[in-house]
């Protein structure tokens, strides 16, 4: 059986945006797009030249079909998607009142993806991967989703698949205490952790990069922490440091930058590069993503990243 | 306290239709409308010049706000709407592949309206009504919805409010056996029943108008049965007969004709007209509604119905 | 008969905006909205929790129907609207060439609303109101409109209804001299006057807040003058002062802020609050309105205003 | 000075159509087009290879600019357009409820074109024309418009310019009696009259082709009467006959066929062809126009007409 | 190396359609879709459950990217696509004046796909296929395209890959004589030929099914000839017969039916079914495709075909 | 024969822009506009009150028709346009990822306009012009286009028509060396040269205004060099100087400013004004054009320029 560079899983949803910048109560025309943190990462990794598998549980409806085709269209293996005969594909609406006042309305609870359960996992599929990518969104969706995450970690962890974990804290989806407990636990079982500074504080209770990293890296882990415009901080048993970010001319759409960053980290690790170089490319991808509308539309191909890095001086970090 | 001609309640949803006649998996632009059998009836009754109250349980979201304003905008009392803090306003997507191949995708299960419960009823409000209008959709939505229907019937029935019941059979929402049991039971507790021919057969097991009507009218009820193009058949203890329908030039959109028919019946009853005249106006409204796109957009004002009836010879019924 | 908190009247029109920011001569796609200073105020007052009646003279056409439903949809009493059998509902087009170059093209002269006449007034209706709200737009529309304004003032003034007057100077609609004469006269007959600084200068010929206010408040009136970012100045026989405005992060659309301010004043007066508190809330509403596209779409509910005020420090006024 | 084949004048308006087939009260998106009987004829004549001049009085607004450019873009001389500094360019909305239920809402009264007056006529310009084309719409617009029509007829008639008159009866615009009186009078002063069968009956009170024609041709005139699918009937002192119409596969949009017919007649007369041939081409153009959406979009070039006629057998007339 | 069921190649283009049914000269809004006979077949075969490879030469532009992703999204192997650094992805515009008057405007000459050349072929890839599918469009595109078709036939023919050929005659793209010569020659080198009746006549000069088939099947070939509503006729050395088509309720869009038919034939052959059964399913797919808008959007999954066939009586053929 | 103020020629194309600011690979809705440097200049000159002729070679397709009508609609003589029976009207797509990242995708190579050849020139037509305007785009399109430019220069130069040349360097269309050679040669044959500072450096190898101008003005020419915000520098045998630009409040769309500048120069020369005044008006037009979306939509009428100049103090140049 063919090996695969990265396997990831989690809910991708259909996103509806109003045609105009108006309160949704007054708007009657909408555009459809696709959104999902894990599929963003999968798309990013695929564009950087690696083989990726992504799966979720989809509804048997046209929106499930749309998501399936959109992700497969990016060259990602979607063969392990399962289907719910009962629940529909999740969706959400984005209301933009002003550039700083964006509101989200979910039709996600009881979605097909929230029905994901350990039985949906193909053990052999995970074992074929070099990296298993997991986010903190999935365990927040439902009890069976959480069990699925743990089951995947169990499979990967006990068989030499490296687990990369992005906490992606969403306090709208679960209670703070439960979130802290579960995410800390998953971090503990992962090999590489990719928190933002805020998430690092949330998980550890510490307030400095070094203190956060020291707690999270316990047990031989690697932590790479996003610092916004400043860049990113990395630390493991052997080394630590800050890699400054790239200057961004115009932030068109900040969404998806963190996912692009994760894709960049995975790509660098797959290339066996030294950590500072890995992080620098991840910073570059974050900077590129914010210059384009859409969650995944701006994820660059490997040539575009290299070109951008050779052109830019990395004095400022934008990867968020 | 002011009396009210009609009170009705039930779920109104947001309806999204694709900009083009394409399978939804391939369409990325959508228009928003409003849909709901009970609010259609309420709008119809209001345009015919009567006072109406409608309520549902809405989500605290822009779509709940949209529905509330749309129905209030028709001059309907919406003051008894309640809100769910948890569940969103229901919505659905309509896929039109050809004029005969229309498919519906619901985001309705677990909606705010499905949380409707007997506690949401304002007993005094119902008692102020001359007619309580109920459909067979509401009891199919959830257990608490069914209990709410029964509670409303209880309030109305024991206090002299006339109960008008449209079975509106939706086999997608519940099992056939349960549907038959519950709808028959509600029919039994109602005063006026407005089934289609198919629904009449479903409820009684009989196959002729007279046989169906004889079963349904037991206990002094009135049955008015829609016969499609042929018109409608009415029967009670005192009289029965067929009122032929009106000729329709072009069926633009058949949805909503049954609701228009119900509105016409209620209006005629409120005017204390003889049954054949009541049914004739209901037929006319059904014929008018199918000539306009949208579920409620084509519901006529009283002047328009009268004008249409005086212009038309009623040789063919279109009320469906 | 039920009393009402506020009654207002005046022309609401249909507004068409181009789909793109292009000179209209080159644009072939348009969106429809609703616009009108008095209905904005009515919507604002209704959202703040009070009972309001609004009326105008509408055309017997789909745009009159659209306006009627839109305003009724906000919970406003529209029962006193009258109809012109001859003249159409007014409309206008907005051309936005750049953020600072916006041009308006009216189809308003000879509109139904310009046919409004004293006979359209329901005296009892006005007498049921605590406040009568009037703008300086209506007397500019036609001779019969002006007479209607005077007739309404006469009814209200001689029966203890407090008259609140917003000059809303529109020099495109009438000659400067006539405008000054009529608006001064109406101000003279009003109890509370809500001019902008420019309008205050126009009406009095004075150039300082105090001088303007001193002239306008003669005879026991209250003046509340909008000062743009600085906030607002209030003065009556007993007190005067400046209430600073709220800091606005991003001005999305300045239109409607003045109407929101008026709604805030009316709401505060209805709550019997001290003037500085009344003005502070009005400032807050103005600040909220400019953060949302549309004339009335951004008018807040009372909870939203209170929340905003408790969150914000009022160091800068934006109510214009 | 250069001579011109045809001169015509009359109001062209901006037409707004809803994006969907919905009652306008419920539609918020509109497309803009141009419409006008006289400009349709001018466009038709221009495409058939002749020189044409058209004029109207336009508003000083973007819609006047749009109309001016659209007509000039067809190669028509628009140099004699005048402008109103007060009144706007006329516009109207088309509501299509079903294919047989189309409703029109005008913003035309008091439009710039209705201000057209004899002083706007350039006598030399009219005298340069071989044919002056006039419709019965213009005299219905206002008193000054009617005077302008009479003044133009006076100029043309007394100087050897042939007057072609299309009654274009619009009973929405004026009273039946006045319409009959004025149109009969204009017909009397014209040389060639192009009524429909209904208009012929309206003007003469007669009920057969021959009787109508005999009355209208008095004084040496030519009458060419449109008979719908059957074709057209022509009569003058020397000859008369019916020219059958062309078979139409699919009537996409009937509007504009009569104007195309008029353009065809003018073109044939300019080519000095025998009447039956003139009428046959006019029939062909009518048949082509109804196969295309839009009032003037389907008007053919001369090559297209010739091709169509050589391909078709003229067994049925569609020019309406 | 993995074997593949079907390999096909040829130009897929971007298709732009106007938002309204208007002559393109007057339309300013367009929608984008994808179109291509060979990719239609590939999509059809993939939905029926087989493995397919498709390739073309694409431009290095967003439209090439769009086509690549769209086809990959259907689960088709696109790994053998090559790119032109010079020429753009082909595109075309569709003008629909009426249902019977559709006009096409190509931007296809000198497109990237027309640069396809024998060097772009991966010999091993073709040899892995069970069936090579070829259309008569590709050899019409350019000299190098024709050479590529011949080279692919050479590879497949001499190595046991079955060649299925759909003539797809396009007289707009090349001269009749050359088309007849080349297509006859390719038919001669193919194993299974899928002409329409017209194409059969064009290629053989014969006028009856049997005579056409007898000429085309020379040398042990199989011919399956589409007969429109009547169904299809098949013939080889061992058997022949007509398989009647399925009744179609409403032809929404006839384009793509022939490609669906080809996909059905390939699927049946891959399932080793007897010819009449193979043809019957192909007929069914053709009937399903015409009921949906778009070239490939209506191609059914295998379950949908089986369901449709078990529901329908095949009395009438619509596969075209 | 009538004389004409300016004659110009060159390719105008159809421009498609996406409905949203998205990478084109993800956008399926497009708007159509018109674009072309020479037609922009023609439109600009026409709006300033002069007679202009423009021509190109168009495709026999609806886009050619659209361009023809659009330019004729501006009052420009288009009678010398020729048609290609083979090649289509050129078009291009504009992708805007962010305000600073705009990408262009051409369908222009092998377009109808690229087939323009010396035989398409009407010698008498050029000789009737006072000014022949030429850009450096046309010679870059094809060999025959270059020959056409030279032939036009030959006609004009040897007969007293003043040649105005805007280098409009487009390095995407040809090689740098060839561009420098040909453009320098054309500049040498022209009378008035309108380069930007960059183009001046490219053509002369010099780096200061004076040095560039000294080289370019050799042989009695006039050079007017655009300096961006600073304004423009002019020089001829008699005089030289800088005319400062106008302050621009908001740059909405910078495209077309250079063409507006050229139109302004031509208009000033036609008015026989002194050079500083000529340049000042050209600066003003550039400043007006950048404040409006579209290439030609913002070109002002003469009254608008005069008004703008009298209102503005020219302290800063924006003409680019």
Automatic annotation (TrEMBL), chains A, B, C, D, E, F:
Keywords: ATP-binding, Kinase, Nucleotide-binding, Transferase
Domain Carbohydrate kinase PfkB: 6-301
InterPro entries on file: Carboh/pur_kinase_PfkB_CS, PfkB_Carbo_kinase, PfkB_dom, Ribokinase-like
One GO molecular-function entry: ATP binding
Entries under Pfam families matching the protein: PfkB (PF00294)
Similarity comment text for this entry: Belongs to the carbohydrate kinase PfkB family.
Protein's recorded name: 2-dehydro-3-deoxygluconokinase
Species the sequence originates in: Paenibacillus pectinilyticus
